[in-house]
Amino acid sequence: MRHVIALDVGGTGMKAALVGEDGTLLHEARRPTGRERGPEAVIATILGFAADLRDHGIREFGEPAAAAGVAVPGIVDDTAGIAVYAANLGWRDVPLRALVSERLGGIPVALGHDVRTGGLAEGRIGAGNGADRFFFLPLGTGIAGAIGIDGRIEAGAHGYAGEIGHIVVRPGGPLCGCGQRGCLETLASASAVSRAWAAALGDEATDDTSAADCAKAVESGDPRALAVWRDAIDALADGLVTGLTLLDPRVLIIGGGLAEAGDTLFGPLRAAVEERITFQKLPLIVPAALGDTAGCLGAGLLAWDLLSVEVTA
User: Which superfamily is assigned to 130-289 in CATH?
Assistant: First the structure.
């Protein structure tokens, strides 16, 4: 059976699959990234995982994968196939596409940014299926976005398109890792909500205090949680209105850990965005549909796209 390899590399874990031509996940596997062992070890783990997937495909389906797709965090030059920089993984200028292709016997390999790759999957087969314009926004450790146009993801001239997490929404606010103050991700990411909730709890906070705990406290009516949640939603709505003004998407897809709060997030967020728009059109604001499989599914789509281009050429 014809299939491709899909790998989604995260800061702590890797998700992988063999994906059929119709998008079916024929085989799934997970492994720790092992970043504590250093960038060289992480690269070796990726290559070894890819080789094991190839071997599984040969045993199970009688033939090797036709192509592979790899999604990684950080700054990615997908045209050159270079993983330029990832703070969480400690690597710089890794020719990952060439390394994976060589390990897999020279098959074509696509390299993509993890958020844009996840957005590709959500746009084609997830919550944005059928939308000609969408914006995918996962709210996790940080905030980034993927701009979807007619079934493809716009990377920008330099590969930085969609970085809405670094729009300044509170000038002079918390210091961001990018060097600015008051960036959206310092105020409305899951990590930011976790920090704000821990600060609100004071001595009651524990090492495990999280944004999910804050959401539960919101549901129970805790006034401290309501204040933290309101501040995060206000910041997020301000950032989203800037994004809507620039991009005019038909569908806004919210994913990541914070989206797991469901209506506790989406109800007040929709209301806050609607209050702020003037001439802009309010898009559908919907939860992501694919969960943590989006990056892996998107990597599979990148691989099949490579094969489609080869056939067309």
Answer: ATPase, nucleotide binding domain (3.30.420.40)
Check pLDDT > 70 for residue 18: yes
Q: List pLDDT tens digits, range 230-253.
A: 999 999 999 999 999 999 999 999
Beta sheet of 109-113, edge-to-edge order: 25-32, 13-20, 3-9, 68-72, 109-113
Give backbone dihedrals phi and psi of 104, rounded to 5 degrees, phi first.
-100, 20
Q: Which fold has domain 3-117+292-312?
A: Nucleotidyltransferase; domain 5 (3.30.420)
pTM, 2 dp: 0.89
If one counts every other C-beta atom within 10 angstroms of the C-beta of residue 251, the result is: 21
Q: Given this model, what pLDDT does residue 151 score?
A: 86
d(CA 102, CA 265): 45
Do the first three CATH levels of 3-117+292-312 and 130-289 match, i.e. the same topology?
yes
Residues in the chain: 313
For the record, the structure tokens of 78 come out as: 């997908």
**pLDDT band for position 313 (50/70/90)?**
very low
Tell me the domain boundaries of the chain.
Answer: 3-117+292-312, 130-289
